[in-house]
What we know:
By secondary structure, this protein is of the alpha+beta class. It has two domains: 153 residues, Jelly Rolls (Sandwich), CATH 2.60.120.280; 127 residues, Homeodomain-like (Arc Repressor Mutant, subunit A). The chain is built from nine helices and nine strands.
Amino acid sequence: MEFKPTRLKRVFTINEIFTVHYFEYEKDYSFKGETHDFWEFVYVDKGEIEIDMDKEKRILTQGHAAFHQPNEYHNLRANGVVAPNLVVITFSCKSPAIKFFKKRILPLSDIEKHLLATIVRESIHSFSSPLENTFLKELTRREEALFGSEQVLALSLEHLLISLYRNYGGIRRNSTTLKRGMEQDLLSNVLSFLQEHICEKLTFTQIAESLNVSPTTLKNLFKEKIGEGIMTHFAKMKIDIAKSMIREGGHNISQISTHLGFDTVHLFSRRFKQLTGMSPTEYGRSVKVEFETTEQDSFLEL
């Protein structure tokens, strides 16, 4: 009996890449916008940006990526507060499945972030063109490129697209494990967002809109995974920072209150007492007493 080969199916094929960038922008950076006849992928590695997808304005936060389809007008601008770091990749893809990514904004899992890092690394191995060159129109191949680097780049980009499609596309199977993984990725993104904006005064609606998550999903996620509401958890994160600042000294209660985004010292003190059982002043005294007692005990042990 003769062996018969099986021709492997290719759901995404990337044969052409235009640019790979890693930008570290200033907090007030603004790009006026453009259109082109190929795909563009924008990932926020740090901070957040505002983008236009045709006429629709969106917020792209850390850990999220946006896809711009061919001939779609798009631009971006920093929010004036945080200096963003971005990965931008432009490429050509004629595979039918690529249509799924039209106007998509998606969070990346840890595996997908690793694939993205591989793409950037293999781009450096393949091309001498600076990653930060905003005006780059054509990549320059390295004379002594690492063997297979361009192929690894293409395979990693195809793998990234497949992974995102599996996680968020219409052919996902009902899998408890997959669902839990996606929920954990979302929770990680939310917690990172809260930590990054720990000194700001945020509302529940602002958090949901910034992360492109429905309020119901966000509410249920925190109840199930954390066991409390997101605003309560955010307040606890703030109070943990406040406790550290009190222990470290160097700031008075009013300065700490302002630093953490509370409207008044009274509101800060009331929230602090609700969550710790004592006022900021009482907590400061208790820490000092505990420290002095510990020092004395240590001395007696010697």
